[in-house]
Amino acid sequence: RSYSFITTPIFYVNAAPHVGHVYSALVADALHRWHRIQERSPAIFSTGTDEHGLKVQQAASNQSMAPQLFCNDVSLLFRRLFDECNVSYTDYIRTTEDRHVNAVQTFWGKLLSRGWLYKDSYEGWYSTTEETFISESQASQRKDDSGNQLMVSAETGHVVEWTKEENYMFKLSHFQDRLLHWLNSNPTAVYPASYAAQVKQFVSAGLSDLSVSRQSYRLHWGIPVPDDPSQMIYVWLDALVNYLTVAGYPSDGFQWPPTHQIVGKDILKFHAVYWPAFLMAVDLDPPERIAVHAHWTRDRLKMSKSRGNVVDPFTELNHLGSDVVRYYLLKEGSLHQDGDYCDERVLTSLNGDLADTLGNLLQRCTAASVNLSNSVPSMPSAANMTAEDRALEDEMKRLCDTVPELFNKLEFSKGIECIMQCLHAANRYFTHAKPWQLVMNPSSLNRLQTVLSLSIETLRLCGLLLQPIIPRAAEKMLDRISIPVTARNQEFIKFCLGELRLFNQSYGNTRQLGDDTTVLFRKLSMKTQR
Fold this sequence. Notes:
By secondary structure, the protein is α/β, with parallel strands linked by helices. The protein has helices at 19-37, 54-62, 67-84, 98-113, 176-185, 193-204, 235-240, 242-247, 268-281, 313-320, 322-332, 343-366, 387-408, 412-433, 435-438, 445-466, 471-480, 526-529; strands at 4-7, 11-12, 43-50, 91-94, 117-127, 132-134, 139-143, 149-153, 161-170, 190-191, 210-211, 213-215, 224-225, 228-233, 260-264, 290-293, 296-298, 301-302, 339-341, 375-376, 511-512. Strands 1, 2, 3, 4, 10, 15 and 16 form a 7-stranded parallel beta sheet that branches. A 4-stranded antiparallel beta sheet has the order 6-5-9-11. Strand 13 (224-225) and strand 14 (228-233) form a beta hairpin. The chain is elongated, with a radius of gyration of 27 Å. Residues 498-508 have low confidence and may be disordered.
């Protein structure tokens, strides 16, 4: 599509944000920035906070705070975190906003008027942690540390309690065939394919009707069911409708559907089963793609407060800066397998990749000791290129062919790997050419110009491709090698040789370097990291 509509999950405010929340936001942000480079418009990129439900009600009570004040504080914390991570969202949605309450109650009315809701007594195992009922087959027994018998969710291990109440039910059982048809007709509707297989298996096993409200005496912090004060709308139905709220629903002409919805694997069922069924029930299209990512560990261990190994994203941002945090998470994280946060590898990414590889090449090409004219020399003619020159050219052409396709598939980790391979090749090329010797010999100055121009061309292409990953550093680098803002979109992500066919005539054959404002990345040691 020509437009871009990207969403993150909205994040539950019962606890402070963690690195998993940051990763969801960064995947969405990198894709949003990439779509801007592709000049897709208009663009919606939404994130925000999920502020209703029993967990929030309990968390506020534990802090002796009114729920709204509690939500205000935690939502502000999430927003500050995303701002510090340089997340370029266009809409920050809170489920306590009036526009969202209106959207949810309108959506509820459409479900009711179309006959998809009915009131019935319901009982089953309820997980407060996940805010959902689970079936008998999904519950199992387990002993706690004191030997007491507990019932838990077999899938997540969270404690569940037997609950009986009169609720509104959604006729989810009617949507099995339609969901399977949607999944089979759209192979990338849920991506990667391994998660699509999980969803198909879940749906094929049979769907039960879904409880979509809670009794008000149990849950008072939520959106009331219209015309029935005894019931509050189920927190997941409430939360999922946020994607419609940011689209402008229920106003006429709202933009739909989302092109990409980024979710963690723990909320796959809600987004790939319940959400499409809700939308089908009111004759709206499901999202074009639900992109599912894995989780994060710390030194290969699950993060937990009891282990004391939870990564505080604010601490990491304070010590490393937003571009380093962005780079590491997007490099080490994956849609396919859990990422691991390891201090040693963080430093390797900073020192080895960003400082010694990217920053070092920029410094070498622009140093006054070899770049005597303080300029970007004109590119060589094809006839004057050596085998080494052509090998670097081939690296750049492969880069331009490969990375955009990887970014389109949200494979940012693989894209970063390709960029670093090209930068390593350019550094080897530069070292082998020995420009510090060429500059001493007047008869070698043409060769020096070729080495500098091809090395800086590598920086140009890598800088363009790194804009979604490390936006601040990429901007500084492109400014330094005098690439105007108007030449930073996808049209210019191709190797440029000869007639300046990519650039307007204001460039001339040689252009002056921009100001040398700062070192791109400063190296750290383990002692100075904290």
